[in-house]
Amino acid sequence: MIQIFAFAVAKGLAERNVAELTLIKKEAEKKRQRHTLTGLMTIVDADTTPIWLKRAIRLALASLQRRDDIVSWLKSSVDLENNTIKVSPGKTQGYDNPIHLQIKVGKALREVVSECLRSPVASPYLIHYRPKARKREQIAAKDHWTSVTPNYLSNEFSKARDAAHAYDHIPATERPTFHGIRALGAWLYEQQNFPQEYIQALMGHADAKMTKHYQDGHTEKGIEYLEVGADLAF
After folding, report:
1. Any residues with CB less than 8 A from the CB of 100 and at least 6 apart, and which?
2. CATH, residue 138
3. Is the same domain home to 111 and 21?
4. CA–CA separation, 81 vs 104, rounded Å?
5. Are residues 18 and 91 located together in one domain of the fold?
6. Domain range for 115
7. Residues 81 and 106 in one domain
8. Are 163 and 46 in contact (CB under 8 A)?
9. 46-60: pLDDT as tens digits
10. What tens digit of pLDDT does each residue of 75-105 get?
């Protein structure tokens, strides 16, 4: 319609392009500000923040994993005896060389993982919750009735952030989200003098030299895990 009215204006059949005027102009996207450790810990310490969300925040901060991998992390990936936890970052699984990490668990990460395992809610996931109501359509849309979807995690984090008044001094559209925890964690690792190679490997940004991926054998495929550490101190 815009093109038609543009032609009409050019031919003198219309005074203005009225079709173009109906478009809603998008405001410039607001840039999200960075998390601070003080701000994030305010959310973690707040009574208004659900226990499961506190664990998700701490898990993300120590492990540097993405939101989607935090909510899909299985309890079966944990080996407390050997002090390791495995993860295959979902974002890399479509790559030619998908990444699989075996993380050596530091003190802070072990604490939150242990809390997840001790939860009385029977769930296959580290991060889980007991819904107040179990609606059939909601249960059908999830892998397990206790699972947390990525969008639900993001929305609940934003609610908890504002309820804790952690970033009231920042305009609502610029306040940091759950996604920003990963960047704060990487910065904290850097401040604690961990080398960039260590941080990048933990974030799943490993290059071809350090990435171990599916290897084609004569019989079946096996997963080779890249061993990394997560020893951030809170």
Report:
1. 86, 87, 88, 212, 213, 223, 224, 225, 226
2. 1.10.443.10
3. no
4. 11
5. no
6. 32-230
7. yes
8. yes
9. 999 999 999 999 999
10. 999 999 999 999 988 766 666 677 889 999 9
In total, how many domains does the chain have?
Answer: 2
Structure tokens at 177: 């989200």
**Rounded Cα gap, residues 215 and 230, in angstroms:** 25
Task: Give the separation between CA 147 and CA 122, rounded to whole angstroms.
Answer: 11
Mapped onto helix, strand or coil, the DSSP state of residue 197 is helix
> Residues 56, 154: one domain?
yes
- Percent of the chain beyond pLDDT 70? 83
Residues 25 and 36 reside in one and the same domain: no
Could you tell me which of 226, 224, 220 has the C-alpha nearest to residue 203?
Answer: 226
- Amino acid identity at 196: Q
- Show Cβ contacts of residue 57 under 8 Å, excluding neighbours closer than 6 positions: 40, 43, 44, 157, 178, 181
| pTM for this predicted structure | 0.78
- Among 220, 222, 224, which residue's Cα sits nearest to residue 101? 224
Beta strand segments in the chain, E = 78-79, 84-87, 101-105, 226-230
pLDDT, tens digit (0-9, with 9 covering 90-100), for 120-156: 999 999 999 998 876 666 666 678 999 999 999 999 9
Q: Are residues 51 and 146 in the same domain?
A: yes
The half-sphere exposure of 175 on its side-chain side, counting CA atoms within 13 A, is 23
Same domain for 39 and 26: no
